[in-house]
Design brief:
It is built from eleven helices and six strands. Helix 9 packs across helix 10.
């Protein structure tokens, strides 16, 4: 099965307590996914996943009764690791950081949904993390602040393990810059930037930008208070 067919056949569970919103999202997703179920609250989400786990969950955060975050925590407590994509109106980097740290794979704003939601689901199905670009940099810093404040200064790796160029790239990643922007600023090719970024992530043993910045902050390699 090729990637396109695999994604099309992915089973999506959609949770939103606003019927019209849920129906609109369903119509959008039906352009790329053929198997979509809908529930209207957090408890129904938990019950449905326990009964028949989907490949990915798209959930609002604020719902009647149990919230999307609480539903995710309940499922994680059961050892169920179905990826969560939160689709929400809350443009709060602290809430986004809480969601990602709690085990979510993506955080997308309803105001910027559409093709972006589909892209986020594809990223999640590929094993990656996605945060709405307008929130990404602030979410990374919020996550770094939370982790830095709650743990002692155990160093993940020595400063000498990175080259000067890699430290420059890492600093710009922490500011929320994309590889194309970093390449322009440093006079490098995008492929070179991606290669350095991959090497840095390998050194830290992480698989997402949020994790990378959090660990780099713990190691003292970046300033978590740096402006975007």
């Amino acid at each position: 099965m090729d990637a396109a067919n695999s994604s099309e056949r992915a089973r999506v569970l959609l949770a939103d307590d606003h019927v019209l919103v849920a129906q609109g999202i369903e119509m959008l997703l039906l352009e790329c996914f053929c198997n979509i179920r809908i529930v209207s609250d957090g408890q129904s989400l938990v019950d449905e996943v326990r009964r028949d786990p989907p490949d990915v969950i798209v959930s609002d955060i604020s719902m009647t009764g149990m919230s999307g975050l609480d539903a995710m925590r309940a499922l994680r407590g059961d050892g169920i690791e179905v990826p969560f994509v939160f689709l929400t109106m809350h443009a709060d980097p602290e809430l986004a950081a809480e969601a990602i740290e709690g085990g979510a794979s993506a955080y997308v704003l309803k105001s910027s949904a559409g093709e972006e939601l589909v892209r986020a689901i594809f990223e999640v199905l590929a094993g990656r993390t996605y945060v709405t670009p307008t929130l990404a940099a602030r979410t990374i810093r919020a996550s770094a602040h939370r982790a830095h404040g709650g743990q002692s200064a155990a160093r993940s790796m020595p400063d000498a393990a990175l080259t000067q160029k890699q430290r420059e790239i890492l600093a710009r990643v922490a500011q929320g810059l994309r590889s194309k922007q970093i390449a322009f600023e440093l006079g490098l090719s995008v492929r070179t930037v991606e290669s350095h970024k991959y090497a840095i992530m390998q050194e830290f043993g992480v698989h997402s930008t949020v994790e990378l910045v959090r660990k780099a902050a713990h190691a003292g390699l970046i300033a978590i208070d740096a402006p975007p």
